[in-house]
Amino acid sequence: MTEACNLTATEARRLIGTKKLSAVELLDSCVSRIASVNHAVNAMTAMDVDAARSAAKAADAATMRGDRLGLLHGLPLGIKDLESTKGLRTTWGSPIYADHTPDHDEGMVRRLREAGGIILGKTNVPEFGLGANSRNLVWGATGNAFNPAYNAAGSSGGSAVALATDMVPLASGSDTGGSLRNPAAFNGIVGYRPSPGLVPSERRGHGWNALSILGPMARNVPDLALMLAAMASDDGADPLAYTYPGLALRERPELFHPAPPADLSALRLAFTEDFGLAPTESIIRRAFRKVVAALAPMFATAHEATPDVTGGDRAFEVLRSAGVLAAHLEKTRKTPELCGPNMHANVQEGLGYSMADNAEALTVQTRIYRNFQAFFAQHDVLVSPAITCSPRPWQELYPAEIDGQPVRTYFHWLSLAYYVTLTGHPAMSFPIGRDEKGFPFGLQIVGPRGGDALVLRVAAALEAAFAGDAEFARPTPDITALAAAGPISAMPQFKSWG
Q1: Closest-CA residue to 343 (of 106, 79, 143, 97)
Q2: Quick one: which of 81, 76, 77, 75 has its CA closest to 45?
């Protein structure tokens, strides 16, 4: 029997709008699901069920009055614990802010509320989002939805697991080196990194730096498009929002929602296993080849090809470090005992780079960007694996080696995602089947510059093509097994720096 929490966001929103489902009923179903499985995976952290229920009752009253309803009217949301929520504990996964309760919503959260979304709770992250293993001293570790002993990835790991297990119909995320795409791939949901400026953020310390982007996470493409339409806006506090100055995107949701399936037969596909450089595990390569064999005939042409990303690893390492220093240098100096070894290592790495290193990194980034422009003049869409390896136990902070080869850094295993980050091109992690270990396989779909609508439409077409396919449809976790599982908090190293 389908429970209300199992409904897609678009279907739940339709039923609420037609008075066939109450917002309170949907909220209670989500709360019940959290109560039954969160002990096994630890995806949801701080919650205020009473406040959410009050908001749901107000939503139902608005529905009954015949008020004009927002895009997300009555839908419970999970908000990543890097994003400030008024009156709801926000910790950034750090002991420094373990008891912090903001007195305001940051802009993206405010826009979600204005669209009718109901903030149910926060979702788990690594300390300050540094890394792709959602563990911290405040809330502990988040386990993979398909096996809680394995890594859920990150930094939006809590959001991905909450979605995969139907705790909430929609959740927010953010992405620097793949922080939306990586956990989406590991947990069989959809994570989208939009073009810089489409979803404004007023809290980036380096406002012109486009590495860190906010974006939506969902269980399918229509839901993702719905949430993106509510998140997109203009905000003068974000310099990158100049791309859409004065354009009231939330008053024109048709730009992104609904996202009709693209005519794939009119598009030129390029595919790459590794961009020529990424240390991609053989199990991922095999899964990717099966996916490409299945989807390539749907396109006008399909060729193995990659833009040149030479130097991308070091460029990302250096440019990322500049953001780390801006955000965290002072914390490690003033309260070193409250900062984890991972954070200290990141700061020390940043201090080791020079202005010459930064200049070179910016030059390489620009060259790679221009390589992408030349590449997309010959191809319409590019696909790759979303992440370089299959999930491993979360006690392993990061993969130190892949197929016997050592990695450059603790985030080198995210290189399939961060090469695209450097260019600012829109990218999605889209679930297609499972790998040989039984974990979800995430396909990265990359569009041309500004091609957000195209990426959504390509994903919608693939989703429709593989719907009901035993091998390639989106996998779902075993909720009954999770409900019966022991608490993840009983596992060794649950609440540790890692």
Answers
A1: 97
A2: 81
Residue 47 one-letter amino acid: M
> 71 φ, ψ to 5°?
-55, -35
Catalogue the E-assigned strands of 91-220. Answer: 118-123, 135-136, 140-141, 143-144, 147-151, 170-175, 190-193, 213-218
Radius of gyration of the chain measured on its C-alpha atoms:
21
440-450 residue pLDDT tens: 999 999 999 99
Q: Residue type at 314?
A: R
* CB 94, CB 136: distance < 8 Å: yes
Angle, vertex CA 204, rays to CA 203 and CA 209, nearest 5: 155
| Rounded Cα distance, 351 and 167, in Å | 41
Q: What is the pLDDT of residue 253?
A: 63
**What pLDDT score was predicted for residue 247?**
60
Determine the 3-state secondary structure of 305 from DSSP: coil
Whole-angstrom CA distances from 206 to 246, 356, 442 are 22, 19, 30
Query: C-alpha 438: how far from its chain's center?
Result: 21
Beta bridge partners, 406, equal 401
What residues of the chain score a pLDDT lower than 50?
Answer: none
Answer whether 0.85 is exceeded by the pTM. yes
Kindly tell me the number of DSSP H helices and DSSP E strands found in the chain: 14, 17
Q: What pLDDT digit, counting tens, does each position of 86-142 carry?
A: 999 999 999 999 999 999 999 999 999 999 999 999 999 999 999 999 999 999 999
Measure the CA–CA gap between 156 and 168, rounded to whole angstroms: 14
Going by C-alpha positions, the residue among 209, 208, 198 that lies closest to residue 245 is 198
- List domains and CATH numbers for the chain: 4-490 (3.90.1300.10)
